[in-house]
Amino acid sequence: MHKRKRGQRILKMFRALIIPVIATGMFIVGTIIAPSVHLLIIQAATTITWDAGGDGTSWSDPLNWDTNIVPNATDEVLIASAATINISAPIAIKSLTLGIPAGTVATNLNFAYDAISVGALTLNGGDLTVFPGANITHTPASGNTVVARVNIDVQTGSANIYGNINVDSKGYAPGYGPGPGVGGNEGAGGGAHAGLGGDGRSRAGGSVTYGEYNLPDKLGSGGGQPSAGGAGSGGGAIKLTVANTLTINGNITAVGGYGNSNDSYHVGGGGAGGSVWIYTGTLAGSGYIRTNGGDARDDDRDGGAGGGGRVAIYYTTNTFPTSQIFANGGKPNGWDWGVQKGGAGTIFMKTPSETYGSLTLDNLTVDWYQTEYFKVKHTPLPDNLNLDNLTIKRYTEFYYASILNVTNTFTVDNYALSDISGTLNTGTLNVTTNAIFNNQSTATVTYSSLNWTSGIVIDNGGTFALLSGGGDLTVPATSTLFSNVPRSYTNVIVNGTLSHSSNGSTEAYKLNHTVSGNFTVNSGGTVNVGGRGYAAGNGPGAGVGGNEGAGGAAHAGLGGNGNSRAGSNIFYGNYLLPENLGSGGGQPSAGGGGAGGGAIKLFVTGTLTVNGAISANGGYGSADDGFHVGGGGAGGSIWLNVGNLTGTSTISANGGDTQDNDRDGGGGGAGRIAIYYTTNDIPMSQISAYGGKPNGWDWGAQKGGAGTIFIKAASAANGNLTLNNN
């Protein structure tokens, strides 16, 4: 009883001591032991301020803090000095504030160790605040060795980024990393990461992609280096975990470095973008997140641009504009046609309600002058991939040969290219705004619904319900179908453009449709294979090339002579069964010869209605250097076998005309048309196979020869053949 009363007296005494101390927010650290009484008295949170009283740079130097004690897990830390503070090991604090609200202090917090592999800067109980003018970064890689990466874990609070977390050019140095661009003095290649590096004028871009789209933590590779230097380094790596709200009103960036020219002549490759990896409850703000590849300078020997990096964001609620999240490849800033834009990076976002998450490949630029698809490097993705949504857009190139399952929506938009040679299973397939969906011969594409608006579909023979199901086909207005293999349909309606792909030196692609019902080309629609036959200078009847007026190509009609080069005198094909491509016109050294017309074969049991044109005309002979004119391409072939033929538009296989210039090229010879029908109300005035004509007054250039038009009614014994050169 005596001991119990003495313990109660001691407890009462310390209660009297502790209560007033609590009111001031201060505790005494220590353990007080009395008989039967053990009291642990803990220190309250203290604000510790950087005063640079020690070495002026090291977080771990006690003399750099106003308390002469390194902050610990209970401390609120304020750094409001124009200084660079290096963190060299994992630390734990309560909260961290960098800079001041006015943004006039350039505080720089540098991770000098690999915080992703070793351990994070941990905040528990408070917030992270980065004011304008302040920045968080990390030390660059050394050769192929990762020295540092940013990793901040806000375990119970929020993060407010008004300034920057910027690791631009903090990845692998030029010539280093898993995917460096190839170095050299004649235009070095761009570095790779998620997107491949763009080729320079004479050196290849980085060909090795790496990292994970959903767990991005890798540095970007460096661009290829010229002997005088100038290539861009890759972007660095950032990982942020924020329990509550991450508000980004500044920038979080891991952009690849610029490919420059230190000798004003030889340009280095751009560095690849790095990585940004975020976990947060709510994502908010109006700033930017970027892991772009580095651009390259315009100079005599242009370098390739860097491939895009990776972004992954896991969140519960998002009000941050996704239009301000970028991972595009860099672009060359010059006109050198030997250089390429880097491949797009990956942007992955996932909510708890999604099974797999949503992935976007966006190469950003829609106004780049080099719009040919071979001028953009592509973005590989892993085999056997499962996603909730996949979006490919804005000059992204995507090739896939494995199994791709997209639960909800697969979108190809805005000049992007999706090339499927494996298996694609999706809910909704969107092909929109001049995007290309290439269905290869080995592809299997299944979907629940199709939205095909102003897009391009290329059919190379794979399984695709729209093309291979044998049902009805409608080509929407402003959309294009390149049909490169024979197909059978019930009914066909063309409101847009039906064609086949361009050929080169062989007869690889022709349009061949068998229709058991009706085939309708509506006004505004067209079946057009003009200029899609043999390329310039190719084919059995290619025109003779040269700079003083190249010759026109031949098919049914001979090619017209140019100012100083002969047109072809080799005709070929069958007027009864026309199925050959037109040959290409003669080619000047600077280009400009017209390609031949393509080939159309339509067998329609019911009615073929031609209210939009059906054409296989040869291509125009132009002067690409403004002086020497190429020869016109020869007309191609049109073979129609129909029940009923009607309509108000035209059917033509004309040879290609040529430009008026000092050295005029010869016109292309016309192609061949054969029409078999039961009934026909299209007059001959709507059907033509004219030779192409030079548009100038140069008397040395000739019009191409007429083609053949064979028409036979089912009731006729032999049919009628017409040669008409207008």
Structure description:
- The radius of gyration is 35 Å and the shape is elongated.
- The longest helix has 22 residues, at 2-23.
- The protein has a 19-stranded mixed beta sheet that branches. Strands 33, 35, 36, 38, 39, 41, 43, 45, 46, 48 and 49 form an eleven-stranded mixed beta sheet that branches.
- It starts with a helix and ends with a strand.
- It has 726 residues and is mainly beta.
- A hairpin with a 6-residue loop joins strand 48 and strand 49 (720-722).
Structural class: mainly beta
Shape: elongated
Alpha-carbon Rg, integer: 35 Å
Low-confidence stretches: 1-43
Mean pLDDT over the residues: 92
Q: How would you sum up the major sheet?
A: 19 strands, mixed
Strand content: 25-35%
Multimeric organization: single chain
In whole angstroms, the N-to-C terminal distance is: 128 Å
* Number of E strands: 49
Helix content: under 10%
Tell me the number of helical segments per DSSP (H or I, 4 or more residues long). Answer: 3
Short description:
The protein is mainly beta and 726 residues long. The strands form five sheets. It has a 19-stranded mixed sheet that branches. Strands 33, 35, 36, 38, 39, 41, 43, 45, 46, 48 and 49 form an eleven-stranded mixed sheet that branches. The chain has a ten-stranded parallel sheet with strand order 25-27-29-31-34-37-40-42-44-47, with no helix packed on it.
